[in-house]
């Protein structure tokens, strides 16, 4: 009799776990950028988010391009990314009803303190990139369709240069996240574009330093996009709204604002 009861219990549990009708309605699938996670901010925000909302967050850490793909397939409930043009196309394609700005930081140009292209002190970003190219100084591109990669490509194009024509002798597309790209740049004393948060949280700087910052083109906005419930009725849309409300709350804003490394802020809340 005990064996029969145990068997029934197992079958009952398997049915409820495998049947989406009875899925835990507190689950929330959230695709976020590698920079958000690598900075350490996710380790601060997500536990507080779960505590305040009662949700169980399944965090998928990927580049912006991959996060958008996950959203376009309905594999996640919402995404946090940083590439406005791609976000607007995502909305235009019907995969999200809107985008909600959450916080920002900026990008910086990193390079060896020995600066082989001699760009330090130059105030024009376009001229800096041209000097790096003309000197064949090694440059590390993430090459992964992330928000950082898309930003980097736009900087070259805005400077009248075409990355597709660059020589592999100096322009290395590594197809990796920010941490890996910074590691390679450190090993090779190469130039690289990084978000400031990832740079500040990066431990193996070697002879790398910030060589250029502050240009308006380097502004880095992070936005939240709930996946369209019209296109994908099975997503946890109510949970996505709960998360959105929490991310733009004063509680989240204070956590974002107070998160620092060596006394320097990594992100700044600007909910809209």
- Portion of residues in beta strands equals 15-25%
CATH superfamily membership of the largest domain, which one? Periplasmic binding protein-like II
The tally of domains stands at: 2
Shape: globular
H and E string: HEHHEHEHEHEHEHEHEEHHEEE
Please describe the biggest sheet, giving its number of strands, its sense, and whether it closes into a barrel.
10 strands, mixed
Structural class: alpha/beta
What's the Cα radius of gyration?
Answer: 22 Å
**Low-confidence parts lasting 5 or more residues at pLDDT below 50?**
5-23
Estimate percent helicity: 40-55%
> Which architecture of the largest domain does the CATH hierarchy give at level 2?
3-Layer(aba) Sandwich
- Quantity of strands, as a count: 12
- By CATH, the topology of the largest domain is D-Maltodextrin-Binding Protein, domain 2
Mean pLDDT level: 91
The number of distinct helices, counting runs of at least 4 residues, comes to 11
Distance between the termini: 61 Å
CATH class of the largest domain: Alpha Beta
Overall description:
It is a single chain. The chain has 272 residues and is an alpha/beta fold. The chain has two domains: 2-104 and 221-269, Periplasmic binding protein-like II (D-Maltodextrin-Binding Protein, domain 2), CATH 3.40.190.10; 105-218, 3-Layer(aba) Sandwich (D-Maltodextrin-Binding Protein, domain 2), CATH 3.40.190. Helix content is 41%, strand content 22%. It contains eleven helices and twelve strands. Strand 10 (260-261) and strand 11 (264-265) form a beta hairpin. The N and C termini lie far apart (61 Å).
